[in-house]
Amino acid sequence: MFYVGLSLEPGRQDVAAAFAAHAPHARLRWGELDDDCAGVVFLRIERNASEFGFVLSATNLAGGDDYELGLAIARTLSLALRCRSVCDGTRHGPDASPGWCVVWIEGEPWLGDDYSSLFYDDSPELSAEERAGLGPIKILHRLEL
Hints:
Helices cover 25% and strands 32% of the residues. It is of the alpha+beta class. The chain has an 8-stranded mixed β-sheet, with helices on one face. A hairpin with a 6-residue loop joins strand 3 and strand 4 (54-60). The chain is globular and about 45 Å long. The protein has helices at 12-22, 66-81, 118-121, 128-132; strands spanning 2-6, 27-30, 40-47, 54-60, 84-88, 100-105, 108-113, 138-142. The longest helix has 16 residues, at 66-81. It starts with a strand and ends with a strand. It is built from 4 helices and 8 strands, in the order βαβββαβββααβ.
């Protein structure tokens, strides 16, 4: 499973084109998991209250490395939509912390820290005061990928 946060709402055709480029063997299915799942990537788009207002969630049952596929899909959608995107960056951080992400700015990768961010830490259980303490993802430095 992997996610891609986007600053613009992607169309299904944008998502399909990105997967065709990086996982052409995958069958895409929008919605929840079902019994016919061989070679399928199940997709959902949800709203997010952060600077990345849309989150594409992918449950990949088609095989391959979810981390690498997430990077490729995030970069491709950033370029195609001319927007910012974000994905898991734990393999690119300076330590094993799970708070690292890669922020793509029109296809250029930046290491980000999503701890205490509205994108990562927002939850319905937070008080208004706790939510007000959350901010944007911290962009640290450019990555060479």
